[in-house]
Amino acid sequence: MAKIKGAVVIDREKCKGCEVCVVTCPTQTLAMSSEVNAKGYHFSYAAAPETCIGCANCAVVCPDGVITVYKMKVG
Amino acid sequence: MAEFNINEIIKPANLAYKKSRILTDNVMHYCPGCGHSTTHRVLAEVIEEEDLQGRAIGITPVGCSVLMYDYLDIDFQEAAHGRAPALATAVKRLMPDRFVFTYQGDSDLAAIGTAETIHTCNRGENILIIFINNGIYGMTGGQMAPTTLPGMKSSTSPYGRDVAMMGSPMKMADIVAMLPGTCYVTRQSVNTPLGVRKLKRAMKKAVQYQNEMRGTCFIEVVSNCPSGWKMTPVESNKWLEDNMFPYYPLGDIKVPQE
Amino acid sequence: MEKELRLMKGNEAIAEAAIRAGADGYFGYPITPQSEILEYLMTANPQKTTGMVVLQAESEIAAINMVYGGAACGKKVMTSSSSPGISLKQEGITYIAGAELPCLIVNVVRGGPGLGTIQPAQSDYFQATKGGGHGDYHLIVLAPASVQEMADFVELAFDLAFKYRNPAMILSDGAIGQMMEKVYLKPQKKRSEEILPWATTGKPETRERNIITSLDLDPERQEKFNEKLIAKYHEMEEKEVRYEEFLTDDADYLFIAYGTSSRICQKAIQLARDEGIKVGLLRPITLYPFPKKRIAEMAQKVRGMISVEMSAGQMVEDVMLSVNGKIPVSHYGRMGGMVPTPEEVVENLRSFIKG
Question: Which CATH fold topology does B29-254 show?
Answer without folding.
Answer: Rossmann fold (3.40.50)
